[in-house]
Design a protein that fits this description.
By secondary structure, the protein is an alpha+beta fold. It has helices spanning 13-17, 35-49, 56-60, 107-112, 138-144, 193-201, 212-215, 250-263; strands at 2-4, 20-28, 31-32, 70-78, 95-102, 114-123, 152-159, 164-167, 171-176, 179-183, 204-207, 219-224, 228-236, 242-245. The chain has eight helices and 14 strands. The mean pLDDT is 96. GO terms for molecular function: 4-amino-4-deoxychorismate lyase activity.
Length: 271
C-alpha cells in the first residue's frame, strides 16, 4: 500500500467534519477504469460543496506509480484547513491525498452469487448531498456493524421513509416483470460510477420502491466499480431469517457480463 503526499494536519476540515469527497478507482496495469465517470462525479461533488476542482493532471498523477495488475486508487479531496468552526473559509485551499493498494476481486461471488440481508439502520434524507461520494459515511459504518456473519456479503439500506436506496458499499439492481430497475437516488445514497455507465448502455429504470419489490423480482444484483457485479441468491431480513431465494440463470449472467466488459473482468459462463 502506498500513500501520496503524507498525512493530515489536525485542522483539516475533511478529518474534522467530513468536509470533502472521495473516489475509489480500479486501475488495470496503471489505466483507470470508468475514469470519465469518476471525474464527472467528482465535479458534481465539488460544485455541490463549493470546493475548487483540482486539475485533472493532479488527479491522474498517482497513475504512474500504480504498477502492473489490479490496483485500487483512493483519491480524497477535502476543503483543506481554515474557517471558524463549521463556517468554511471564504477562499478554500483544497487538500488532495491518495492511496494505492493491490486488489484481488472476490471471484467466487461472481460465480456463486451472494447472500445479503436488510439492515435496521435507515438513511437520512438529504437531497443536497444525494448521489455524492462525500466523506460523511457514518451511516454506512453503523449499518455494516450490524452483522459479522462471513456468509453475508452485504446489507441493504432503506431511507427513513422505507424506500430502497443501496447496499452499504454497492448499488442495487433488480429485474421485475421483465424490466431492469434501480433505486432513485435523488434523496440520499451514492450514485456509483458503474451504475452510471450501465444506465448509459442499458434501459434501467430509476424507481421508488420498498423492500417488497425484491420479493417480486426475477433477479437481483449488487455492483460497484471495483468488485463488479454480484448476483444475489438469498435475501434475509434484519434478523437473519430468509425472505427470498433465487437460482442463478442466464438472466443473471447477461447483466453481469455487461458490467464486466466495462471493467475488463472475465465474462461469466451462462448458467
Amino acid at each position: 500500500m502506498r500513500d501520496g503526499q503524507g498525512g493530515w494536519p489536525l485542522d483539516d476540515r475533511g478529518a474534522a467534519y467530513g468536509d470533502g469527497l472521495f473516489e475509489t478507482v480500479l486501475l488495470r496495469d496503471g489505466s483507470p477504469l470508468l475514469w470519465d465517470e469518476h471525474l464527472a462525479r467528482l465535479v458534481r461533488g465539488c460544485h455541490a460543496l463549493g470546493i475548487p476542482m483540482p486539475a485533472e493532471r493532479e488527479l491522474a498523477a498517482p497513475l504512474a506509480e500504480a504498477g502492473p495488475g489490479l490496483v485500487v486508487l483512493k483519491l480524497i479531496l477535502t476543503r483543506g484547513s481554515g474557517g471558524r468552526g463549521y463556517r468554511p473559509p471564504a477562499s478554500p485551499e483544497p487538500r488532495l491525498r491518495w492511496q494505492l493498494a493491490t486488489f484481488v476481486p472476490a471471484e467466487n461471488r461472481w460465480r456463486e452469487g451472494v447472500r445479503v440481508r436488510h439492515c435496521r439502520l435507515r438513511l437520512g434524507i438529504q437531497p443536497a448531498l444525494a448521489g455524492l461520494k462525500h466523506l460523511n459515511r457514518l451511516e454506512n459504518v453503523l449499518a455494516r456493524s450490524e452483522w459479522d456473519d462471513e456468509g453475508v456479503a452485504e446489507g441493504l439500506l432503506c431511507d427513513s421513509d422505507g424506500r430502497l436506496v443501496e447496499a452499504t458499499a454497492m448499488n442495487l439492481f433488480w429485474q421485475r416483470d421483465g424490466r431492469l430497475e434501480t433505486p432513485r437516488l435523488d434523496r440520499c445514497g451514492v450514485a456509483g460510477t458503474l451504475r452510471e455507465a450501465l444506465r448509459e448502455r442499458l434501459s434501467i429504470a430509476e424507481v421508488e420502491a420498498g423492500p417488497e419489490a425484491l420479493i417480486a423480482a426475477e433477479a437481483v444484483w449488487l455492483g460497484n466499480s471495483v468488485q463488479g457485479i454480484w448476483p444475489v441468491v438469498r435475501l434475509d431480513d434484519a434478523d437473519g431469517v430468509e425472505r427470498q431465494r433465487w437460482s442463478l440463470a442466464p438472466l443473471h449472467r447477461g447483466f453481469q457480463a455487461e458490467a464486466h466488459r466495462l471493467l475488463g473482468y472475465p465474462l461469466p459462463d451462462p448458467t
